[in-house]
Amino acid sequence: MKKNILKINKSTRNNMVTIGLIVIAYAICQSMIVTGNMSNLLQNLLVSLCYYSIMAISLNLTVGILGHLSLGHAGFMCIGAFAGAFFSKSMVNTIDNTFIRFTLAILIGAAFAGLFGVIIGVAVLRLRGDYLAIVTLAFGEIIKNVLNVLYIGYDKRGIHISAEDAMSLNLDESGVVIVKGAQGISGTPRDATFTIGVILLIISYLIIVNLVNSRSGRAIMSIRDNHIAAESVGINITKYKILAFSISAALAGVAGVLYSHNISSVQSSKFGYNMSIMILVYVVLGGMGNLRGSIFAAILLTLLPEYLRFLRDYRMLIYAIVLIIMMLFNWAPACIEWRKKFSFKNLLGSVFRKTKKEV
Amino acid sequence: MEMLSVKNLGISFGGLHAVDSFSITVNKGELYGLIGPNGAGKTTVFNLLTGVYKPDMGQIILDGENITGRSAIEINKAGIARTFQNIRLFNNLSVLDNVKVGLHNDYKYSSIAGILRLPKYYKTEKAMNERAYEILEVFGLKEEANVLSANLPYGKQRKLEIARALATSPKLLLLDEPAAGMNPAETDELMETITLIRKKYDVTILLIEHDMKLVAGICEKIFVLNFGTELANGLPQDVLNNPEVIKAYLGE
Amino acid sequence: MSFITYLINGISLGSVYAMIALGYTMVYGIAKMLNFAHGDVIMVGGFIIFTLMSSLGLSPVLAVLIAIVLCTVLGVTIEGVAYKPLRKAPSLAVLITAIGVSYLLQNLALLIFGAGSKSFTSVIPVPAISLAGGRIPISGETLVTIPVCIIIMIALTIFIKKSKTGRAMVAVSEDKEAAVLMGVNVNKTIAITFAIGSALAAIASALMFSTYTNLSSTSGAMPGIKAFIAAVFGGIGSIPGAMIGGILLGIIEILSKAYISTQLGDAIVFLVLIIVLLVKPTGILGKKIQEKV
């Protein structure tokens, strides 16, 4: 079984490299912060690099591993953000221990988001390709719009929900309004730190790679590669589609909790298709099924606009042009020929390397 | 002893009877050939037997169990596996992983066990690996275990598809034109492989083919389908010399 | 405002969505791609008309005509530069490129015109009328929008059925390789498809911004998404489907906003889409593509 052991080592080795890179990057950042070498700009971005990375790898599970295009991923992040923030804000006096409270917030955010992942997974079971994509987009928008008008508060009698305004919650004097319609939730304890973000990123990464390199992962990929053949060998398509959707959604929920505990206020309007599409761009640029690539792309494309700030008004324009050029460079046959001719191996090339396994 | 008993199976598409009153009895361990001109409905029969289509009429009994109308997944669990006319491999998975997907329902552990890498994961994966390598060895694919299945040469892809189907431990194996696109040498190799798996695995085989050398060479019985219904059924020497059969293939 | 008024407004908005949806569905059917930047071409069209009218003082008719020409050129250029090189690439790659083009258009507009929204002057000089003794007011814009859209859709259907180019388009949408063997110039056919779609977008923008006069760099995105939903709703790739999908969507949107909730109007539209697709997974007029086993 020597070959066997070598193979397991190869993918495990790959994963260790990725985790190693994350840890090294973390160590470098921390030392830069401690020695005062990191700009405020970058410091403020660190947690966002973590949650966008988690969003990217969780979306890669749906798009790259299961093979279904999802355009509503931000909706799951929104649910996680709100559920987690609601919990933290409500419990801020009851549970003093930040660690316990935040861990619970993470679990609750993941659970709620995962639940919606199941709902949406069931809804799209019979849909194919582009129809599935549009339904996920629709769900994302529905979640955003509904949370935008929702008021939720609680008092001694329990939780009250209203779709109109804070007054119609009819809370008594002990009542507290947590979710304030378009204003969302504010005053969430800022429990998210870079360290916690990196730990959650590593955990999320491990969850996904362990899933992929297991029986369930193979089942999910078989659905992607040939669902008719998968059925013919007895794979329960329904079960594994829903499994992939729910885990992907739950991890997006975790990212959401990081988000809402980073800037202490969260509004649902931020989680529309624009964000979903941004995450999709990270996944496609990094390579479908390539988790390390997703993390790189998320970090690169989150930092890029910030560092292009000197270009001020032109930065988003440059961003768009860079995106188009990157896509053409990577996939246009003429460019692929040119690249083969000159075969330059730089970091950009190896990150966006197209192997048979990707795309 | 009957493995497969099909009575009056039929299905129509938009008024056209693709398969009509199809009846066949395949005994345990038999190698039955299903032949007929193009468009006769042979693959449709396979699709009916494997639950891809639900029949409009008739019944299918597998090893005493009535499986008519069941889903593709249930039918596989009941004991039918198949290969496809156009090879359907899991292209982005390795050769080994393709077979392991076939072993999915025989080597189980929960997703949680996989994610948390509990002992059950390691134990079951090890057993699964051993079994998968055993199967690959039989098909001469052990060397290519870690090759991406899409990169295999055509003949080996066919073999892999059969290997994967066998991994589900079926009672009945349906092979849809396994020799399609093969040269004579590859066809001979295929015939050897089929003969080998009949000996090694206790499996009954129903085989669609156009290659008459293969059909005449290994099939014990032959069923001729034309326009969705039976044209001839019986021993190879009778069926292949039947003037009606010859007419159907060659025309008047 | 009575139910009839809402209904008519819904049909009006719906016919605009239908025109935009036609662009999506034709491009999808023929070039097999989701042109995410389509909605932003509408925004560009709106800005062209606005600029021509307000800065250069051109007449509405001339402004709209020039916008049609410019949008057509824009559509064909985008296709040639950004999409054509990726024709053999996986569809997700083209989708992302289209997203890049969409961002590009939005940010160019942002750069040129600033972030604030402009007030679009209606290009439709027809005055509002009042039916049933004042109980059913109909704006001039609506009066013009509905017939214009209907005429254009009929013209398009005839064009597709009768003209050589139209039939070439159908051929490419059904089987690209076979079409090439039949002597169809695929590149030209796809370019023409984009041209028609973009021209329709320009007309749609003239009509839409005349009614909903808020014009900013993001004004094309949501109508684009809704038109895309309409195209899927009706069955993507089907021209009558796009028309029906668009009009139904407009009606549902206006009625929901009027009778249920203004803020949740969009959410309700999306919900209806989901329910329809649950019942009929390929859309209202969508073809069930039987996967060959």
Automatic annotation (TrEMBL), chain B:
Spans through the membrane: none
Domain (ABC transporter): residue spans on this chain: 4-252
A Gene Ontology term for the protein's cellular component: plasma membrane
Keyword ATP-binding carried by entry: yes
Keywords: ATP-binding, Nucleotide-binding, Transport
Pfam families in the record: ABC_tran (PF00005), BCA_ABC_TP_C (PF12399)
Alphabetized InterPro entries for the sequence: AAA+_ATPase (IPR003593), ABC_AA/LPS_Transport (IPR051120), ABC_transporter-like_ATP-bd (IPR003439), BCA_ABC_TP_C (IPR032823), P-loop_NTPase (IPR027417)
Gene Ontology biological process terms in this record: D-alanine transmembrane transport; L-alanine transport; L-isoleucine import across plasma membrane; L-valine import across plasma membrane
The organism's place on the tree of life at top rank: Bacteria
GO molecular function annotation: ATP binding; ATP hydrolysis activity; L-isoleucine transmembrane transporter activity; L-phenylalanine transmembrane transporter activity; L-valine transmembrane transporter activity
PANTHER family given in the database record: AMINO ACID ABC TRANSPORTER ATP-BINDING PROTEIN, CONSERVED COMPONENT OF ABC TRANSPORTER FOR NATURAL AMINO ACIDS-RELATED
Protein's name according to its UniProt entry: High-affinity branched-chain amino acid transport ATP-binding protein LivG
